[in-house]
Every structure is written in C-alpha cells, then in structure tokens.
Amino acid sequence: MTDVPGEALGRLRALAMADDALARRLHARADVRDFAALAVSEAAARGIAVAAERLAAAAAPDPLGIAAFAATPASGTAWPGADWLPVQVVDLGGQVFVDWLYFGARPLREPFFEDSVRRALRAPFNRAFRYRLALADFLAGAAAAQSLKPSGLIFHMSRCGSTLAAQMLAARADTIVVSEAAPIDAMVQAGRTWPQLPAARHAALLAAMIAAYGRPRRGGERHYVLKLDSWHALALPLFRQAVPSVPWVFMYRCPLEVLVSQMRQRGTQMVPQIVHPSLYGIDAADVIPDQEYCARVLHVICAAAADYYGAGGLLMNYRDLPASIVSALLPHFGIACDDDTRALMLRAAGQNAKSPSLQFEDDSAAKQAEATPALRAAAERHLATVYARLEALRAGP
Predict the structure, then answer these.
(1) Which of 2, 26, 331, 359 sits 20 to 30 Å CA-CA off 376?
(2) Separation CA 396–CA 131 (nearest Å)
(3) Rounded to an integer, what distance in angstroms lies between the CA atom of residue 52 and that of residue 91?
(4) Nearest to 175, CA basis, from 337, 48, 310, 38
C-alpha cells in the first residue's frame, strides 16, 4: 500500500469512505490518469485541492505487494461499509492491521478469493484508498456488523471437488460464497503466530473475520457459505467455537487420485516452506517433500475430519458429485432449491471449477492410469485405512 502524505489527500479518502456514491464513481475508473482526473474534480467540488500527480502516485501498481508492509498507520478505527472486504492481515513488528479493499456490489464468482483480490486491485481506487484497521479495532467493530450467519462450512481433503461445490453455490444470486480467503487462514493460524493468544480471543478473532465476509453487498443474499483451506480440518474445534451450531461438510476422494493431482502440481499445503510440517504434527527434520510426505499430510487432514466427525458434520465423496451438492449438501446447509436454481447450479458444474472458461472433464480414469507403483504404495501405506474409516462413517447411521 502506497500512502501519500498530505492532509488534502487524507480528507478526500475520508470522503470516499463516507460517501458510497463517490466511492463507486472513483472505483469505476480503470485508468490511473482518468481516476486521478476524476478524483481531482471531485475534491475540488468539495473545496479540497489535491494534486493529480499525488493521486497517480498513490494509485501506482504494486505487482509484488511490497508496499502493504510499509509502516503505514491505520486509516480509521471503525469498519468500512459492506462494500469493503478484508484482503490481508499484516503484522508490522507487533502492530497488527487488517487491510480492506473496495469490492462494490460485485459477487465473488472467481474460483478463489485471491483471484477476486487480484481483480479488485486492477482498480486505481483500491491501490490509492486501501483501508487499514488496527486488529483491536477490527475485533471491537465486529459487534455491530450486520452479517449473515454462515449457512455452512466446506472442509476438504484437497483436489476432491470442493471448488466445484463452491462454484455451484456461487452461481446462486442469493448466496455469498467465500473460497479460501487468506485473512480467514490468518485468524486460524493466529494461535501459532501469537502463542500467548487466549483461546476465547482466538475464537473471537476468527468469528469477527467470518462476519466481515458475510455482510450483504448486493441485496437479496440469504445464505453464506465458507469454503476453507484443506488444513483447516485440523481446526474444526476452533470453528465450532467461533461459529457454534453451523453445519459443515468434509469432502474427500480416492486417495490415489488426489496424490496424482498433487504430484502434477503441489498445493501450498504440500510445500514445507509455505505450510510448516509442524502444523500436521510432522517433524521438519523428517521431511523429504516427495509422495510420502504428501500422503502423510493427506492422512493427517482426513484423520482430523474423521476424529471430529459428529454433530453438524456431513461426509461427501467426490464420486457422488455434482448431484450430491443439490441432494445432500443443500439440505444439510438448510438451503432451498427450486428447479430453475438447480438447473443453474448444474450448468455451473459443467465448467472446469478452477478454469471456468473450460468444460469439465472427468479425469479419474486418467489419474488411475498415471499412478506409479511408488505412488500406489504410498497411498496404501498412509491413506487406505483412513479412507476406509471415512467411508464407514459416511455409510453409518
């Protein structure tokens, strides 16, 4: 985030935060020079003199995101309006902030929240007027948030259809879907980041972040679903404390097919330098990032879901998708579905969930054929038992 000093620019920022119509007009300008010209004009109409050069500099692209870690003070002490969403939690040497961007009324239709963030950052307005809130003020502001209670939480093994489920739900006009948002993960990991954090405050921080994404922005939203990162299955008790009584599902798939997918392209949860092995209870000194490590990680995730399975939980196997999203997941989350909405959701299922411009193709047979003997051995050694356990639980009463 580039913060250009100057009282005039600060006053204009404050006006944009308080005036939704002004924020929409400024946000609509995609070109930096057009944005700066309009901002100068809007400022002048309110008796504020702002240099176009300052506005252009504040809106300059920052492709590496380095400016977010500058020691920029908080922009205010209250939550911004519902058209703003948290995009990053930044720890600046003990000073922790939540940064927000303006999303307007546009729904989050991208496969992952980070895709939506990249889209939002195309707007010069967001690069110039990103909103920063101290963590204590963020937590205090949650009490007044007019947010929907989540209809359900989606946990998953990884590469097992959870993105498909999220995209089908996102096709509904009445449903907010947030998919793997980094600020949610930051709150889940807060206990590891700040080891002295009391358990009750940890749950309150997570509940506040969940509330921040559940505020209706378009009108007509009645449901709110969070799709979480795969390792969040280990934090199921924390989620149950943060949002009690909210139903959840755990999605899983034939372990061999998941391993083949991970060998093709590793997810972040399989890279020890990104997600530390200690998160899974694995000794970092005992890690060679091969198929054995991936299988061990998947075992820990699936075992956590099986261990915590109980009230509010539903197990879903990839082989039953997409029909089970409508027949099982929606009723479990208490979401009604008429014939037109069902057809809309099933049309979304015909697209590649991670690349919606492409058509979906079932790759199970190809993955089975691609599996090497070593991969089959790793799957059998680490995942056969826990997979059988999940299947038994799913088939049980």
Answers:
(1) 359
(2) 49
(3) 31
(4) 337
Q: Which domain holds residue 371?
A: 146-174+222-395
For residue 2, the model assigns a pLDDT of 38
Best CA proximity match to 304, nearest among 258, 395, 235, 391:
235
For residue 371, give the amino acid letter.
Answer: A
Both 11 and 71 in one domain: the answer is yes
CB 161 within 8 A of CB 150: no
Beta strands in the chain (DSSP E): 84-92, 95-102, 131-134, 152-156, 175-179, 223-227, 248-252, 313-317
Single-letter amino acid code for the residue at 310:
G
Contact status, residue 157 vs residue 252, Cβ threshold 8 Å = yes
Does residue 203 lie within any of the structural domains? no
277 with 387, same domain: the answer is yes
Q: How remote is the C-alpha of 289 from its chain's centroid?
A: 25
